[in-house]
Amino acid sequence: TSLKYLGLLLLTAQQISMPLMVRYTRNRENGQTFFTTVNVLVMEIMKLAACSFLLIREHKSVGKFLGDVRDAIWGDPIETAKVCFPAVIYTLQNNLYYIALTHLDATTFCILYQLKIFSTALLMRVMLNRRLSSNQWFALCLLVVGAADVEWSSSSAHAGPRVANDFVGLISVAAMCFTSAIAGVYLERVLKGSSVSVWMQNIRISLIGLPVSILSMLYLEWSDIQRDGMFRGWDHWVIIMTATNSLGGLLISMVIKYADNILKAYAQSMAIVGAVVGSWLLFSIVPSIFFMLGALLVMLSIVIYSTFPYIEEEKEEKAALMG
């Protein structure tokens, strides 16, 4: 329980800071922005290094750590094969994240991205046989409406990157919603059915995602990288943003392991409110009445979802007999 709520708290803080930093770092001239594929590659390297450090510290031996990695990757090929799909999907999604925020303003992106909550809930019903009560479905509706209202009413909509191509941005967000739901629910099933630690699972995912990231970088941006260098546009903000985003991947894995995807979605939705509040505090953007109404709907949805879970008919009958 402590790990679950610690992960949710840290994930919420990470999700609050990310839109603010991405908005700032992508709102530059085209020749001064960082390469998204390079950023995703560095994120994978950071995540791999962080997980390796934690496991080496736990084992207190580099040799034992390397032996466990060998056993986890090559000694259990079936389990390794299971994470290939989400590893490729997450690499694609990380690139789509930056593409969407390049072509759409932050408000439109945040509103449309809330559709992943519905797709996640539907896939949880299909893949994990997770039932939701009618009150929980109503709570999901309130969540999407409230989060969308908060973002729509925010006057920070024009503070994001310039709108370049709405169609590309919309396609990117649609793909993110679909892939996020599939990979998240699938990975939850893999993680909760595996005895391997969260950190070793992330090492598996990183080792698979690294070659995919390298191939993406060579295919999409190699000519520009040769001309401008790999780390064009990198400053201390890009470094902090990259490290924070890399940490977010580990936090999501922790939340998936000890909670579920719906709780993760709520943490991210609450982060939308926090991000807008952060814009208010940092950039003196005063929230409107519609913002306050949206925030209230989000809070109400969390209370309803937590208070009225699905109860099986057998439990209801036992409760009625006991009553």
UniProtKB/TrEMBL annotation:
Keywords: Membrane, Sugar transport, Transmembrane, Transmembrane helix, Transport. Its main location: membrane. It is a multi-pass membrane protein. It is found in: Membrane. The chain crosses the membrane at residues 34-56, 136-155, 167-187, 199-220, 236-256, 289-308. GO terms for molecular function: pyrimidine nucleotide-sugar transmembrane transporter activity. The keyword Transmembrane applies. InterPro entries: EmrE-like, Nuc_sug_transpt. Pfam families: Nuc_sug_transp. One of its GO terms (cellular component) is Golgi membrane. PANTHER family: NUCLEOTIDE-SUGAR TRANSMEMBRANE TRANSPORTER. Belongs to the nucleotide-sugar transporter family. SLC35A subfamily. This is Nucleotide-sugar transporter. It comes from Pristionchus fissidentatus.
